[in-house]
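Let us work through a complete example step by step.
Step 1: write down the sequence.
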Amino acid sequence: MRFNSFWRYRRFILSKGFISAMWQSRKNVIAASLGCLPAAGPFMAELDVTYRCNCRCRMCQRWRNSRDGELTLTEYQDLAITFRGLGVHQVSIAGGEPLLREDIFAIIDCFVKCGMSVNLCTNGILLEKYAGRIREAGKICVTVSLDGATAPCHENIRGAPNTYSLIEKGIGTLMAYPAPYRPFVRVRMTVSNFNMAELRPFYLKWRDLVDDVLLQPVHRCDTSYYSGFEKTELHIDPDALAEQLAGTPFATDGYMVRLIKSLRTDGGFPRHRCYAGVLMVRIDPWGNVFPCLEQHARVGSVREDDFRVIWNSERFDRERKRIVDEGRCSCWYNNTALISHYGNLLRMTHVGAIREKDNSKA
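Step 2: predict the structure and record it as tokens.
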């Protein structure tokens, strides 16, 4: 599920920066279809600023990799300037737990000041402690990971006992600020058979308490750099999923409808056109650059080269073309932030323009 209410997201979608980014993204989609280098930077950059974490999630292994040497504030400031020059619109700051970095608000500020829309992904444990600082960060988006409607379910999956009530309190503190002076707050549930029975209660609990409720189906990709649950733990029961979604906005969401159908017919996730390396990119805490958010292939490091050089490099372009040649992928991430939806719309406008031009010649 990408979002439930267009009106609630109007300050992002109707902004001048968003419209400009869509125009630049259209150029990238056209360039990819012609086998050319992108005309602009990615629409979205996922920045993992640390893999340190105060959770021990069952579907994540990043907390096991908490080594030192993360990118510094100065390096992020330089990256923000480069992103601004390339027309990057959205930066998603993730981890690990980003709020464990002492300089996290300075990192957020450098991207906000460069005109980018910032999404802070957090497990919520430190929200209450830093609510005031988050409010002062500006009109950012905060996405809180919650994996159940009850404490036992969430804390079992997240490996963080006695934290659910603290997360609830932190969210309540943020939402208590007047709407114009607080971040846009979402809760996101990573759906698996472990918490399936709490899906509808989760939605009913949070729908009127936060700005949006998101669902992210858990999945495993064997060729990615990081994997989560074992295969035997990953199966999502499509009938149970359909039952839980019934009567909620998720029941008619295009992606969820396709997911249930695909799980029933093929036993896997639906495949869709991939825009990795065209509209999105991921950078890990040590500056390694990956075209795909699943981190299949490293194409460079911002500690070795300027991001603009990496983005337009032969090495990156080979991986970009490989992804395009493969055609379609089944990961969830391409559905994140409406990337797949935007990409397909932009591609259709290009195809439609070509057809209209051909018809006029005829």
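Step 3: interpret the result. The first helix runs from residue 10 to 13.
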